[in-house]
Amino acid sequence: MAKTQDAGKRPHPGALHFMDRFRNFPCPLLNLQPTPMHHRNERSLDLVTLLGDDETKILTADNYGHTVLFDAASYSVVHFPKLNCSKGYDAMAVSINRAAPQEPDCLYVLNLRTHPTTSNHCFEVLSYGGFCERIPIWRFLPPPPFTTTTQTTITSYTVVGGDTIYVSSKLCGTHAFDTMVPPRGTKDDQQVPWMPPAIPVSYQDEYS
């Protein structure tokens, strides 16, 4: 009986049959190409992230530090300022949105594979506000304290309370960065927004 019913059904014409009905597609507004594998002297994407809470704005950065913003709402591409230094493949990208309208929102980017020789260039922030009001600026931030003496990999990160970034490494424990404390002062007397380890290394190693 089942064979008789199947035999009476008309065969599906397939997707190509329906595609023939749409011969005159509009010209594409954006052409996306897959990023190549990460090799020496070959451009690849280090990070792709939403810019803040706005799900229509996507920021990308390649391994040369070039940044580009794609606005899906207006179908436009905006060339952003270049990073001061590339942050490596799969870098951390965390957006902090300020409640006060006069304060700029910020995107924090951190190299997850740290080394003492490059620690001074591993952490940057992009300050931006209304795109018609402020010119986005990348600037260096004080690196996590352990990066100046230890080569390690940051394995996880998160935002707590809307303004504090926590980064964790199995070798160095968990440290917190308070984005509300701007680094300032002299080299010997500087207000550094990094707080001491939030979780002892021995505790983290035991339960990680």
Automatic annotation (TrEMBL):
Lineage top rank: taxon: Eukaryota
Protein's UniProt name: DUF1618 domain-containing protein
Organism: Oryza glaberrima (African rice)
